[in-house]
Amino acid sequence: MALHLANWDYFGLAQVPMYEPTRPATFGNFHACQGLPLLFMPVQGRLNRGVVDWMRQLDPDTEMLGNFTDKTLREWFAQNRGHQKFTVLHHPIERAYDIFMHRILVFSPVSMNRFRNMLRRAYGLDLPDTWEQVGALPLADIQHMFCMFLTMIGHNLRGQTPLPENAQWASYERVLQGISQIAVPDRLIRACDLASALPDIAQAVGLADPLPYQAVDLDWPIALHQVVTDDIQRACEKAFARDYDLYGFSNWEPAHRP
Predict the structure, then answer these.
(1) Long-range contact pairs involving 236-242 (C-beta distance under 8 Å, separation at least 24)
(2) Which pLDDT score, from 0 to 100, does residue 59 have?
(3) Is residue 97 part of a domain?
(4) Can you give the pLDDT at residue 209?
(5) Residues 41 and 157 in one domain
(6) Strand pairing category for 84-89 and 38-40
(7) Element (H or E) spanning 248, and its range?
(8) Does the pLDDT value for residue 16 go beyond 50?
(9) Phi-psi region of 133 (alpha: psi -120 to 50; beta: other; left: phi over 0)
(10) pTM, whole model, 2 decimals?
(11) How far apart are CA 135 and CA 120, in angstroms?
(12) How far apart are CA 100 and CA 116, in angstroms?
């Protein structure tokens, strides 16, 4: 008994705390085929473009359905019995890097300027404004900026920044809780398994010989494998600790398996 009590984590200090707010149910970004009972329930971000393109090729004679409301989504469910609903999980470091490359590193029409300003003021980053300026920076500077961005994400998700928690990098746990308020996905697919999993889903809804999935070029000006360091891996795991624990992610590799 004494040994058991000595090892008892009475205050739950070994558990990863969760300070991130819950996410409301959203369905405006869902994608469905008109001619097939197939519904994609994505996490926000650019990483899912290849999945949407694949669905469009499966049903090329009709327009993809999107911009759902509660009413139109319920109608789609009622009209598509035997449907398959799925969500794709990308490695957290890929999610963060895509945002960093396209919305943080340089100023652009889609840049997240409030977070860029906070990274400059609170984290001491001298962020460039143009890609020409990026080209003049040593790789170590880009690596440091990305590492600090990951640190900021962790602070933001725990409510430790002046800006509200941003849904662009919300944890999978919270995103899936929000999706499940509408309907629980039939399948959670890891991005590294898309090539085999998507044709399997298509066969499940009646396509005998579905088109293969082709990943799209995410047009990152600097490839992720050039940037990743051990410090970046640790910063990402700290920022998304719950996702690493709950969904089994490990260190990212170019052909990673979570």
Answers:
(1) 236/92, 236/93, 236/96, 236/150, 238/150, 238/151, 238/154, 239/92, 239/96, 239/150, 239/151, 239/153, 239/154, 239/157, 240/92, 240/153, 240/154, 240/171, 241/16, 242/16, 242/18, 242/20, 242/171, 242/173
(2) 87
(3) yes
(4) 87
(5) no
(6) parallel
(7) none
(8) no
(9) alpha
(10) 0.87
(11) 19
(12) 10
Q: What is the model's pLDDT at position 254?
A: 83
Looking at the structure, do residues 44 and 80 belong to the same domain, yes or no?
A: yes
What range defines the domain where residue 77 resides? Answer: 31-91+170-204
Report the share of the chain in percent with pLDDT over 70.
90
The residues, any chain, with a CB within 8 Å of residue 202's CB and separated by 6 or more, are: 36, 38, 58, 210, 211
Looking at the structure, tell me whether residues 59 and 124 fall in a common domain: no
With respect to residue 2, please indicate whether it lies within any of the assigned structural domains: no
Domain assignment of residue 235, yes or no: yes
CA–CA gap between residue 218 and residue 216 (Å, rounded): 6
pLDDT: which is higher, 25 or 183: 183
Let me know: does 178 contact 25? Beta carbons within 8 Å.
yes
The number of distinct structural domains making up the chain is 2
What would the pLDDT profile of 161-192 be if each residue is shown by its tens digit? 999 999 999 999 999 999 999 999 999 999 99
Q: Tokens 């961005």 identify what position?
A: 149
Q: Is residue 151 part of a domain?
A: yes
pLDDT at position 8: 60
